[in-house]
Amino acid sequence: MSTPLLSIENLDVAFHFQDGDYNAINHVSFNVYPNEVLGIVGESGCGKSLTSKAIMGILPENASVKQGSITFRETNLVTMKEKQWQKIRGDAISMISQEPMTSLNPLLTVGKQIAEVLKQHRSYSKKEMKEKTIALMKEVGLPRAEALYKSYPHQLSGGMRQRIVIAIALIASPQLIIADEPTTALDVTIQAQILDLFKNIKNTRNSSLIFISHDLGVIRQVCDRVVVMYAGRVVEQGKVADILYEPKHPYTKGLIQSIPDHTKRGQELYTIPGNVPGLKERKRGCPFADRCAHRMDICHTHFPDEVHVENQAVSCHLYTKEEVKHVSTIH
After folding, report:
1. CB contact at 8 A, 25 and 50
2. What is the mean pLDDT of residues 268-290?
3. What is the CB-side half-sphere exposure of residue 184 using CA atoms within 13 A?
4. Tens of pLDDT along 188-211?
């Protein structure tokens, strides 16, 4: 494989409370390669969005990186000052949030908000900025782009607002785009249109994309590889097709069982028993142990090393050398 555009190694992010620090992200490592779409999947509370905020340098005030590195184009982003960040955010790295109304300024027209990125990072004339903005609005599928340029966010539908947020992320032609649950707040029809737009972005632009979702069905449609996160840990990663058809980790298997499809019509959908443990409820060992049908004593005391099984990297005691005999029981 080529040199990664983004490399995360042994990343720990902790929240600081009066009674101590609690790690929300533990020893997370993964790469994003040029022109690749990497999915990050997991239930709410698994650390997906917090990982994206760490990459963007926008962690909450009571959170910080405790150890590890986030390397983008050979620069460790963890050590950068805010002034350096301002040059990168929106230019080399941009982000698409799941709720466009919170990321759009209600007092500015949407055209100005897209053009503002060019004003910050490029030296175009006003005319050039407007032309590029309207051209991009058309590219992301907005009708009557010239008229919409002067519209305010509240005058647009949810799907149109999400397209504006995507345009803001694309306008400076960033090398890395992070899309955090970009279809969650949309109805099914609009969701399908936005996913088609992401497929088009993948095919026509030279950007890498991190696509965050709780839905493996969505990940299947747009991503090349996927990282499965659970309670702040990476439990499995590999090519999307390999993970969907030959999942290794019991948690990944549960997520796949939960995907609705036509063969399950009329049946009750599978749900993984139990819940993701809260930040202060996480114990030693594998955080999935309490919900796992294949747990062993070691699962409660030691988090497993990452091992390579076929084409995937998986962290599960079922695949460590001592327990390899158990593998057949979960196929």
Report:
1. yes
2. 91
3. 17
4. 888 899 999 999 888 888 899 999
| Residue 302 within a domain | yes
Confidence tier at 321 by pLDDT (50, 70, 90): low
Helix (H, G, I), strand (E, B) or coil at 87: helix
Q: Is residue 268 part of a domain?
A: yes
The answer to the question of residue 148 being in a domain is no
Q: Within a domain: residue 48?
A: yes
Provide the CATH number for the domain around residue 236.
Answer: 3.40.50.300
Give me the residue label for tokens 């150890």.
67
User: Sheet holding 63-72: strands in order across?
Assistant: 20-32, 6-17, 63-72, 75-76
Number of helices and strands (H, E) in the chain? 11, 12
Cα dihedral sign, 70-73-74-75: negative
Indicate the number of domains in the chain.
Answer: 1
**Whole-number CA gyration radius for the chain:** 21
Instruction: Record the pTM.
Output: 0.92
Confidence of residue 329 (pLDDT cuts 50, 70, 90): very low
